[in-house]
Design goal:
single chain, 232 residues, alpha+beta, five-stranded mixed sheet, four-stranded antiparallel sheet, disordered C terminus
Length: 232
């Protein structure tokens, strides 16, 4: 238990089905030995350390604008955002060590197609000893270090799935997705996450339809046929 308690009131059968599905998932983040935190780099506080373009003395600084189809695409040039942070002893407390991390956007517009948008930071694609995550990004980690590779890609599939997005839209009335919100979700077990991650790594999953089909194969949303009407 994490000390947070919520009352969710589904308003229709579909909402009730998704709520039941989420409640029936087997794991918490704590049980998976995973945590989620908010990016440490607050732009206005670290401005002197930030660079628009990568330099020899910098490492990647990841913003939501670097997310693309479940991946981190870096650098973005030209970009209104910074791409890098100076790597010096005094800035290293703002960074995390090299590894696989799952990132989500903390904010989305009401018009955005998805409320929960996740991407994997892959150290095989960006080979730096440290990385900075900007404060508009949440990152999943294992006690401050990177996740297992298969687990990271499986977690990305889960978070980008339509049932998770529907759950957030039904029970989260604003456009923020904070670390606390992500901690209160339930998750698939470790074996299922790893298996789904392997499907991504083998190139079998990429589109939204493929993500949802993969999730449905392991964790289908079943109709309960029960939902409370507003008059009850």
């Amino acid at each position: 238990a994490n000390g947070d308690h919520f009352i969710h009131l589904p308003t229709g059968e579909a909402a009730s089905d998704v709520a039941s599905w989420m409640a029936g998932l087997p794991s918490t983040l704590q049980e998976l030995h995973i945590d989620v935190s908010t990016g440490r780099v607050v732009e206005f506080r670290a401005r002197e350390l930030l660079r628009k373009d990568p330099e020899a003395s910098t490492v990647p600084l990841i913003y939501p604008c670097h997310f693309s189809s479940g991946q981190v695409v870096w650098p973005q040039v030209p970009s209104r955002k910074h791409n890098a942070i100076v790597d010096i002893p005094d800035s290293q407390y703002l960074m995390v060590p090299r590894g696989y991390y799952v990132l989500t956007k903390r904010f989305s517009s009401k018009e955005e197609r998805r409320r929960v948008v996740a991407a994997v930071y892959d150290p095989g694609q960006l080979d730096f000893e440290r990385i900075g995550f900007e404060n508009h990004v949440n990152y999943f980690h294992a006690t401050g270090t990177g996740l297992e590779r298969d687990m990271a890609f499986g977690l990305m599939v889960f978070l980008n799935s339509t049932p998770v997005d529907r759950y957030f839209r039904q029970f989260n009335g604003h456009t923020q997705v904070n670390a606390t919100d992500l901690r209160t979700l339930r998750y698939p077990d470790a074996e299922t996450l790893r298996t789904m991650g392997q499907s991504v790594l083998e190139g079998l999953v990429g589109s939204q339809e493929q993500i949802d089909s993969l999730l449905a194969a392991y964790l289908p949303v079943r109709s309960t046929g029960k939902a409370k009407s507003s008059s009850e």
